[in-house]
């Protein structure tokens, strides 16, 4: 193995979770030099651009700081470069995301949104294999493994850019999964979130080796892997320590004389163990800590920071993320709140009650104000960074005409012989029902900017997973919503979430 580069230059323009990339680089034994000026780009020995967020916002920063010109010069001189996700897309001529918006123009072609008319849900979130077309050094032997994607927009291969394309992936259509020309590499997937396989991609870029011609590996490019997601309900116990807990419909206290909070372990340790056991994602749902002061929950921020140091799969955090005013009268937007959690290691933000209120207002007026937490966060970080957690409760009715919401026929009649039920959304930890159904809420929040839905089933809370048939019913209810965000089925305190 050749002598490693001691320092890696990182282009972080200030949006999204770059902490994961930082931790992966340090995990592999390298120090990081941050780009502070265009000159830092031009003087780099090896440059990593972990682009996150939205295309227009990224280009705006690059252009205003003079970094766009420096980045183009660096790449045109065939200097060692690795772009990640948006760091690949920005190399193209333009994007239709909030646009059209001009890109760096280094690679022919534009970036467009996935076509949802064919039934594929957008954004594309999941683990896919690659179809590798040519030797790419960093993709050595990766063709038969899955890597993690999370994006709504993609670049398409064409005759004009075929000399750049090193691999593709198939999600409805064939799109560019990676590019390589000379020392310039970029990948659409997230190596820092793809477990050991992703770490091997970063390692090969950081530890360059002599070029050896190999026969490209052929992966199962159309295969989308099933995802196992560890959903951890987190709250403080009576001693003030954060613990992972579970219970029956939000009752997380032991039925003992002490009546203590049920303690299943420490969040960081359990997340690490789930990662070692093969979990593809970890979700922290803080069920009480954010009610009054989201940014005051320093222990949860530390959980994210410590977890992201050794867990290289996506991390989601949720609980009370909204606009608020603190005790001193200072106003904080939901975007400011979310930004702090992104900087602490979160890849996605889960919004619950605030999403319900925003959806109710949107359905009432039909107007997108741009001020809701969903709209604010998705506009800056992309809708793939926004998860809406829906906590529905079953309400029995005699006829689907009894309510204005989507209803289904039940297998087992209700207490008064009712043959139908609708699923009423709740807020405040399931304590308050709202006049909106799960179907209507899912439809509204997708239009407001949600990229993923975590569908919890309060009625199955604490129940054996074989009894959680409501999950299948709700999934079937929404199965016809082609092009909608991926639906994750979960049970609070019950079954693990799956896709």
Automatic annotation (TrEMBL):
Q: Which reaction does it catalyse?
A: L-glutamine + H2O = L-glutamate + NH4(+); 5-[(5-phospho-1-deoxy-D-ribulos-1-ylimino)methylamino]-1-(5-phospho-beta-D-ribosyl)imidazole-4-carboxamide + L-glutamine = D-erythro-1-(imidazol-4-yl)glycerol 3-phosphate + 5-amino-1-(5-phospho-beta-D-ribosyl)imidazole-4-carboxamide + L-glutamate + H(+)
Q: Which domain of life is it from?
A: Eukaryota
The record's section on InterPro entries has:
Aldolase_TIM, Class_I_gatase-like, GATASE, His_biosynth, IGPS_HisHF, Imidazole-glycPsynth_HisH, RibuloseP-bd_barrel
Q: In which pathway does it act?
A: Amino-acid biosynthesis; L-histidine biosynthesis; L-histidine from 5-phospho-alpha-D-ribose 1-diphosphate: step 5/9
Q: Which CDD domains match?
A: GATase1_IGP_Synthase
Keyword check for Transcription regulation: no
Entry keywords, A to Z: Amino-acid biosynthesis, Glutamine amidotransferase, Histidine biosynthesis, Hydrolase, Lyase
- The UniProt entry annotates the active site at 85 (for gatase activity), 190 (for gatase activity), 192 (for gatase activity), 233, 391
The molecular function terms of the Gene Ontology recorded here are:
glutaminase activity; imidazoleglycerol-phosphate synthase activity; lyase activity
Q: Where is the Glutamine amidotransferase domain?
A: 10-205
Q: Does the keyword Amino-acid biosynthesis apply?
A: yes
Which terms under GO biological process does the entry name? L-histidine biosynthetic process
Complex formation: Heterodimer of HisH and HisF.
Family to which the UniProt record says this protein belongs: Belongs to the HisA/HisF family.
Q: What is this protein called?
A: Glutamine amidotransferase domain-containing protein
Q: Which organism is it from?
A: Rubroshorea leprosula
């Amino acid at each position: 193995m050749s002598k490693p580069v001691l320092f890696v230059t990182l282009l972080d323009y200030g949006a999204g979770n770059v902490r994961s990339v930082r931790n992966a680089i340090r995990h592999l034994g390298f120090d990081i030099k941050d780009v502070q000026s265009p000159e830092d780009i031009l003087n780099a020995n090896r440059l990593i651009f972990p682009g996150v967020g939205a295309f227009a916002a990224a280009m705006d920063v690059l252009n205003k700081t003079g970094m766009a010109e420096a980045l183009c010069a660096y790449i045109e001189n065939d200097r060692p470069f690795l772009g990640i996700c948006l760091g690949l897309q920005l190399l193209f001529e333009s994007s239709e995301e909030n646009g059209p918006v001009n890109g760096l123009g280094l690679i022919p072609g534009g970036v467009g949104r996935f076509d949802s008319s064919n039934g594929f849900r957008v954004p594309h979130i999941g683990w896919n294999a690659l179809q590798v077309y040519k030797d790419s050094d960093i993709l050595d032997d990766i063709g038969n493994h899955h890597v993690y994607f999370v994006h709504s927009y993609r670049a398409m291969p064409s005759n004009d850019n075929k000399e750049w394309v090193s691999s593709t992936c198939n999600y409805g259509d064939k799109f560019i999964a990676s590019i390589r020309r000379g020392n310039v590499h970029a990948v659409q997937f997230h190596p820092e979130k793809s477990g050991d396989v992703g770490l091997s991609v970063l390692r090969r870029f950081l530890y360059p080796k002599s070029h050896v011609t190999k026969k490209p590996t052929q992966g199962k490019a159309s295969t989308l892997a099933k995802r196992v997601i560890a959903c951890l309900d987190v709250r403080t116990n009576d001693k003030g320590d954060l613990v992972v807990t579970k219970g029956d419909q939000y009752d997380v206290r032991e039925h003992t004389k002490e009546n203590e909070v049920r303690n299943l372990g420490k969040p960081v340790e359990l997340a690490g163990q789930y990662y070692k056991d093969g979990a593809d994602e970890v979700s922290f749902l803080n069920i009480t800590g954010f009610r009054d002061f989201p940014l005051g929950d320093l222990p949860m921020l530390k959980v994210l920071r410590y977890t992201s140091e050794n867990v290289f799969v996506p991390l989601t955090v949720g609980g009370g993320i909204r606009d608020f005013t603190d005790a001193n009268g200072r106003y904080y937007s939901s975007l400011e709140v979310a930004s702090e959690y992104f900087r602490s290691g979160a890849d996605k933000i889960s919004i619950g009650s605030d999403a319900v209120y925003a959806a109710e207002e949107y359905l009432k007026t039909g107007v997108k104000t741009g001020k809701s937490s969903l709209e604010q966060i998705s506009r800056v970080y992309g809708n793939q960074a926004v998860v809406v957690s829906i906590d529905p409760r079953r309400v029995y009715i005699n006829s689907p005409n009894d309510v204005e919401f989507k209803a289904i026929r039940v297998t087992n009649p209700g207490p008064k012989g009712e043959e139908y039920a609708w699923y009423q959304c709740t807020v405040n930890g399931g304590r308050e029902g709202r006049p909106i159904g799960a179907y209507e809420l899912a439809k509204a929040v997708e239009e407001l900017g949600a990229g993923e839905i975590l569908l919890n089933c309060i009625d199955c809370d604490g129940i054996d997973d074989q009894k959680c048939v409501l999950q299948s019913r709700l999934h079937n209810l929404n199965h016809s919503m082609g092009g909608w965000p991926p639906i994750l089925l979960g049970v609070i305190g019950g079954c693990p979430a799956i896709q």
